[in-house]
Amino acid sequence: MVHGTADPTVPFVNALLLQSTWDDMGVPNILYDLEGAGHGPWGATVLDADGVPQTLAELAYDFIVAQQALQVE
User: Fold this and answer.
1) Which uninterrupted H or E stretch holds 2?
2) Which residue among 2, 13, 30, 51 is the one 20 to 30 A from 20 at the CA level?
């Protein structure tokens, strides 16, 4: 998940609650918070777990590849 901390449409606390629920259920997830961002920051770039800047599409792709243990060349 990627969620702006200043989202006036869907409060950031909802992302925290969803993450907590998924954690309790054992559902793999990662929450990237976008400090000061509002609703729909689709062009955002965030740092991945290794500190490398990635687009949201790249993060989603890497998450799917990792969760499904795919070999991508």
Assistant:
1) strand 2-4
2) 51
